[in-house]
Amino acid sequence: MPVRRNAxxxxxxxxxxxxxxxxxxxxxxxxxxxxxHKAARTTWSTEPVTKRQxxxxxxxxxxxxxxxxxKTGTKRVSHRKPECWQIELDDDRHELCIAKSRWDKVRVGxxx
Length: 112
Prior knowledge:
This protein is an alpha+beta fold. It has helices at about 1-25, 100-105; strands at about 30-40, 40-60, 60-80, 85-90, 95-100. It has a three-stranded antiparallel β-sheet. A hairpin with a 5-residue loop joins strand 4 (about 85-90) and strand 5 (about 95-100).
């Protein structure tokens, strides 16, 4: 049993390393046209709250159960956006959030 567990753990670690390595290689290239800092923020939305409600009716000695989803109200849901040190590239398609230390070093006009 421990051998299987160790093999599973090693496989999971290998997959995690591969995923992290692939995140570091960016195929996005271009000239930096804009730099912008966006503070962390939280926005809110509302979502319906529902419950399943069932009723049973008897007719001629047989029971019939029917269920439906009923809206019982709404709830507020938060959506948190982390702080972003953003650069925009000249291809008008890519806005990238990068580390602050790297953002401090790059300038508008630099090649990315």
